[in-house]
Amino acid sequence: MFPAQDRSFRLFAFSGIQVYLHWSWFLVAIYELMVRRERYTSPVWNVAEYLALFGIVLLHEFGHSLACRQVGGRADEIVLWPFGGIAFLATPQRPGATLWSVAAGPLVNVVLAPVLFGVTWLAKTQGLLEPYPNLDNFLYDVQRLNLMLLIFNLLPIYPLDGGQILRSLLWYLTGPATSLLVATVIGFVGIAGLAVLALLRQSVFTGLVAFFLFSSCLAGFNRARAMRGGG
Q: Which residues pair with 88 in a beta bridge?
């Protein structure tokens, strides 16, 4: 259940990688800006925060794409949509190549963490927070969003990065089919937890994320069964 490029429009290209924006991105952007309108004294900061979020997402996806190319794979397109971003990769079917292609995304967030902290420290030492009171909240929120994206993506839920990293590590021991099967079964458990969280918090967004992950995890589970000759 990936967003199709024919319902997206091209933003730009970098290093031969085409970046697209899905039309539904704007719907969620409007919703999120309305929900967080009390966070800042000016809506300009809300827009800046949302753009910063997807700037981080885009860097994350470029991490996947460039790492995939490094191991001999193909990576030509990235689509940004409400739930984040998707790098379309054709990774060599080797556990090491898959592991590096997947792990490079979260590593971008790890590198960004001290960079964002340094920017915040510099803003404080240069006295920029007093004349721009919204800047403090903005820098804090961007750091928090980067950390949240890192933690969420490392959850062992297939097809999140954590689930794919788990599958790649298991691949060394059990082969491509069994590793995918085990990773998706573990993923179903995690998705059930997200669904319960969505109900407890009455969060439509969390519920939609859980539904998307379930659909993708189910597709991976069926592919693993087919690879094992079980259907």
A: 77
Residue 8 main-chain phi, psi, to 5 deg: -130, 165
How confident is the model over 194-216, as pLDDT tens digits?
Answer: 999 999 999 888 999 999 999 99
Ramachandran quadrant class, 192 (left: phi over 0; alpha: psi -120 to 50; beta: rest)? alpha
**Are 15 and 70 a contacting pair, CB within 8 Å?**
no
Q: How far apart are CA 154 and CA 163, in angstroms?
A: 7
Burial bucket for residue 5 (CB in 10 Å: 0-12, 13-18, 19+): middle
Tokens of 175: 């082969």
Alpha-carbon separation of residue 152 from 1, 47, 70, 209 (angstroms)? 19, 23, 25, 11
**Partners of 86 in the beta sheet?**
79
Q: Which amino acid is at 74?
A: R
Strands across the sheet with 84-90, in order? 8-14, 17-22, 74-81, 84-90
What digits encode the pLDDT tens for the residues 143-169?
999 999 999 999 999 999 999 999 999
Paired tokens of 96: 């090491």
